[in-house]
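Suppose you are handed only these lines of text.
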Amino acid sequence: MRAMNDSTYDVAVVGAGVFGAWTAYQLQQSGRRVMLIDAFGAGNSRSSSGDESRIIRMGYGADEIYTRSALRSLQLWKEFFARINQTLFYQTGVLWLAHEDDPYPVKTAETLEKIGIPFEKLTTSEVGRRYPQIGLERISWGMLEAESGVLVARRAVQAVVSEAIKNGVEYLQDAVKAPNGSGSLNGITTTSGRRISAGSFVFACGPWLPKIFPDLLADRIHPTRQEVFFFGTPAGNQSFTPPALPIWIDFKDEAYGLPDTEGRGIKIAIDRHGSEFDPDTGDRVVTNEGLAEVRQMLARRLPALKDAPVLEARVCQYENTSNGDFLIDRHPDFDNVWLVGGGSGHGFKHGPVVGEYVLARVEGNQEDVEPRFSLRSKLSEHQRAVY
Ligand SMILES: Cc1cc2nc3c(=O)[nH]c(=O)nc-3n(C[C@H](O)[C@H](O)[C@H](O)COP(=O)(O)OP(=O)(O)OC[C@H]3O[C@@H](n4cnc5c(N)ncnc54)[C@H](O)[C@@H]3O)c2cc1C
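From them, the structure of the protein bound to flavin-adenine dinucleotide can be written out as follows.
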């Protein structure tokens, strides 16, 4: 067996969050020799992919690119879970709660129709009849994506990494140092002194990307602090578990909730960007103000749970680009280094397609980068447009 220091890989993938995990998995499937490295472990609690659950929905307003990607990703997630024989997707449905004056759900319906994704438009009274546990204050219609649902996030990422390792990906838990120089990068080094040589390098380091490449990305990716709460439902009551309760999204009020899957409690969070956050040292204790705001939302949307106990709370971070588009592009100083990130609070579901996309670029048969994913399109001025 060769010593680790002598190893040369086709590709070294740094970061085993959902983007890096799927990238390593797909690269290996295409026959490449792959090393995957993560500082804290796949789906660790600091990573953006480390929470219990993430929504996979098709609706993205007029953003066809993400609707198509979500559709393909759902298929790839489902095929993957079937292959490993694990239930890590719950088809709970996603219910959009639309306000009268909100164009986003209208655009979403148009896009879904255009692409041929099934959904159901519901009047407020139909929503009320089907989901009597949901409060409909200020809601004027609803839209149900019946085939969408919940990904069991942390375990799903860990499953992708386990499967990749089983298939031959080498995995290392270590922190990679920022590369120096320009041209063609031969190797990277880790804080414990290992050197890893590879033909190409993918940095899929989520909210750490601006720390690793500060000159390039400090102004282009902004990690923000996001609080997430899980509340307990009454004993023996099935109204808050699927199929009785789907995921709900109140886009206008910047709030969403997930039904109780696997007994973790119902999940609720505010999607508005929080304050700047350091993924290494940031304090992950939720605030009283954050709790008060979600409890208010709970009282509005699931009134029977207004006094429900908090079962768990987490602080996670979004890694926002200027407008919410992903960053998937070559590093401008190196011809064999790829930057993959900018999930911007909506990236998890797209892991499988991001993996496919990066594979095609690393293989070199699709040199052209989607303009929306390009480094050039990432401005320092913040104007969120993708949700
Ligand atoms: C509260 C919240 C709710 C969200 N809800 C949804 C949702 O419902 N649906 C959805 O699709 N998306 C959602 N997202 C977004 C989604 O979770 C992220 O876009 C996605 O997880 C980003 O994955 P990533 O692989 O880019 O980053 P990460 O998961 O953060 O992975 C990066 C990895 O890189 C490693 N790393 C960093 N630096 C180094 C280094 N120097 N050396 C080695 N390893 C390193 C880290 O340890 C980490 O494991 C949400 C995000 C948050 C925070």
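What can we learn from it? The first strand starts at residue 8 and ends at 14. Residues 1-6 have pLDDT under 50 and may be disordered.
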